[in-house]
Amino acid sequence: MPTYISLIQYTDQGIQKIKESPARLDHAKKGYEAAGGKIKDFFLVMGEHDIVIVAELPNDEAVTKLSLTLGSAGKIRTRTMRAFTEGEYRKLIQSLP
């Protein structure tokens, strides 16, 4: 299953209700499962972003729908990218002409 990395920032609304954040994470985990995937790793981080999530989802469409759904609550902004494992990387490199 493809791996995706999401860089997340709290919105003003999200940080004002920060104590609700663990419940929102639990809700997000259920959303990932409903979309056919799972959160592999969750990190609270310092710097430009507040949270980093590493997840597996079936395809780009599933991750896009999930990101839009979670973002529509107004508590977070996301930037999500497709990540390739070492095995996938090696296969891609081997296939180059």
* Apparent shape: elongated
The main sheet orders its strands as 2-3-1-4
Beta-strand portion reads 25-35%
Mean pLDDT: 97
User: What structural class should be given to the helix and strand makeup?
Assistant: alpha+beta
> Unreliable stretches, pLDDT < 50, 5 or more residues?
none
Radius of gyration computed on alpha carbons: 15 Å
Order of H and E elements: EHHEEHEH
The largest pleated sheet is described as: 4 strands, antiparallel
What is the tally of helical segments? Answer: 4
How far apart the termini lie comes to 26 Å
Percent helix range: 40-55%
Number of strands: 4
Structural account:
The chain has 97 residues and is of the alpha+beta class. It is 41% helix and 30% strand. The chain has four helices and four strands; from the N terminus they run E-H-H-E-E-H-E-H. It has a four-stranded antiparallel sheet with strand order 2-3-1-4. The two termini are 26 Å apart.
